[in-house]
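Fig. S4 source data, part A: sequence.
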Amino acid sequence: MRVWFMLVFLAISAPVYAERPQYQDIVMQNAVSATADGALLSVQQSNVARLDVQITGTATVGFNIAGPGGYGWYAKLCTPSDSDTAVAETSDSGVFYCVVAAGNTMQAPVTAYTDGTVTVVGRATTAR
């Protein structure tokens, strides 16, 4: 009986080491056809933001971040998935990864627009 009790106790009190990552996709720009700030992506308690950018014409998307308290927007360097060179804006479609530790909120504004549409989907995650 004692052995059974100890096994049950250990199974219940054992720490959980692998935690499932939590994330939610946020549409930051939805087929916009003008300059626009777009929706905000919360990056609180996140380490990395993934931004999927689709530009079907000629436009520029910037990457901005606000720190705790949201006191101001600052350019954020993000790295394209097919490059090692970080950029603060893009005129090309692609997937971009941004280190956002200690940030509060991100935005991907369309800062220049000529034609076509722009869609940006963001996801903030915590890598462990």
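Fig. S4 source data, part B ends here. Residues 78 and 98 are 4 Å apart (CA to CA).
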